[in-house]
Give the backbone structure.
Amino acid sequence: MSLRKLAGLLAGFALAVGLIGAGVGAQFTASVTAQENVNVGTFGCKISTDTPGVDVYTNSATNDALYYNAGTINSSAAGSKPLSFTVTSTGTIPVQLNIAATKLPTPFVDLLTIPVPPVVLSPSTQLSYTFNAGISWPELTNANLGQSASIAYVVNCNEVGATPVTTVAFSATGGTGFMNDTITGTGFLPGGPLTLLLYRFGSPYPQNLGLAGVTASWTGTGFTANYGDDCHPTPINGVATKLDMPVVVWASDGTRSAIGTGIIPCSEF
């Protein structure tokens, strides 16, 4: 999340008037003082849900992730599995919400229409916003037997009006026995520390690419990060897949952040 903070200024003045001496030559004197107090507001957001069967993963004292195992489809009839979740501002500084989602395989459909216009949360207007998302599907056939679908939503919380505008993008190329992922970003603090997270298809856990030893090369306020991939659905374990994996990537320099989407073409691995 963005951690860009604003300062509020308070000014206080104290006036003291005293009578010095008495009789001939007595005079009034006065003095004034000025005091300035700077208070930094708080910033943050959390995610919650009323959808039954959803697990909430926590990081420190705040809820920052949900995982919903919607179960197995046991009928060919058209249907859906809705997932409703609410993002709440936890600070005093207004935040802007932007949401991105991985792509679903055919014939499954995202119940949340992407792109969603940015949503602003502010103590003076509204403190929370509910996204009505999930997966739907038409009537299924034998061709869909054994098929599975998974979608990941990532909500970015940024200070309203933060500049410069930041962007992040994901691309990947592959061939027999190799795969290379590339993340590019613009508008970040030049050469500063960078956190890169990647949400893979089928996994509720983000892969922290910074901990994986991925380093970014900088050109001005932009960066490029390259690393090899072995097409495992989760970054820790599991069997390599031949299915293309949609991903959501998130980048932050501690002050500003951005989200983007892409595909790991594991069918070419």
